[in-house]
Design brief:
four-stranded parallel β-sheet
């Protein structure tokens, strides 16, 4: 086993607490793994001293994605791998999933200098690089909220960001989202989440709804596993350390991939008594695979 400690990469300042961190640290103690939180953009850190760097709550990279991707590429032993992080930190990966035949929300990608075509029904505008619904908003339709939505797109463009426009899937209001959490390539647990975007809220003013354990359907499990098999490249001999697949019901009631979170997702460890221990054992197993 590699002899150095494990770094759990985080941000210097968090808008919301990382509820997973204390549970994971406690579970790692039980496996005999030495670990501590480390700020990802701290220039004084020598990342080569760590046996493994696990990306966790690095939620402040949104406006510095290129810097974050470069950092990931410089870390000798990183989970998840740098190539996966580069692909996954821009939501245009949904186009790749769609091209692979997976059901994803119909999406219009609007780069700076391009004009957005707004749908008549309810829709969502958000940036392609975002976390926790930052800079995202829900609108009632082009005929009602068109000016506000176009102003939203213009603000994203002024900041050099690409916007995405998606029809709002109304079944989410009743059913919410189902987040399937995978650890070491296996389903660990699943969580039900309420809808976060309400009409009339300003971009970035998401409402954090209650969440709790949920049993996924067979169709949801099958789709989540298809999504994970569609990740490009080779994530290494031990595969992805963790993944979260967020699904919502489409208009026909069948699940649709809303997000494939492979970089810094909340894993909702508090919702399952064994989840933190499973992740700690997966980290210990990754150390064994990497060797000294």
């Amino acid at each position: 086993m590699a002899s150095g400690p494990v770094a759990l990469a985080t941000a210097g300042t968090l808008a919301h607490p990382d509820d997973d961190m204390p549970l994971l640290l406690a579970a790692l103690v039980g496996t005999g793994v030495s670990a501590r939180p480390v700020v990802w953009d701290d220039p004084s850190v020598d990342w080569s001293v760590f046996s493994l760097v696990v990306v966790r709550s690095t939620w402040d990279y949104i406006d510095r994605r290129e810097e974050f991707v470069a950092w990931a590429g410089s870390v000798p032993r990183l989970a998840n791998p740098a190539a996966v992080i580069e692909w996954n930190t821009d939501k245009r990966y949904l186009a790749d999933l769609g091209a692979a035949g997976l059901p994803v929300p119909p999406t219009e990608w609007v780069a700076p200098g391009e004009e957005a075509m707004l749908p008549e029904g309810e829709f969502v505008v958000k940036p392609t690089v975002s976390s926790g619904s930052q800079d995202s908003a829900r609108y009632r339709g082009a005929g009602t909220d068109g000016a506000a939505a176009l102003a939203h797109v213009a603000r994203l463009h002024a900041a050099g960001r690409t916007a995405m426009v998606q029809p709002y899937l109304r079944a989410v209001d009743a059913a919410g989202e189902t987040a399937l959490v995978y650890v070491g390539g296996r389903l660990s647990h699943a969580v039900g989440k309420g809808p976060m975007l309400a009409v009339g809220r300003e971009p970035g003013d998401a409402e954090y709804r209650a969440f709790g354990p949920r049993r996924p359907t067979a169709a949801e499990e099958a789709l989540a596993e298809r999504a994970l098999r569609s990740v490009p490249g080779d994530p290494g001999p031990a595969g992805l350390l963790y993944a979260r697949v967020d699904l919502v019901p489409g208009d026909d009631g069948q699940p649709v991939v809303l997000e494939l979170e492979l970089t810094e997702p909340s894993l909702f460890l508090v919702t399952d008594p064994g989840a933190a221990d499973r992740l700690a054992r997966a980290i210990a197993g990754r150390l064994a695979v990497l060797g000294p």
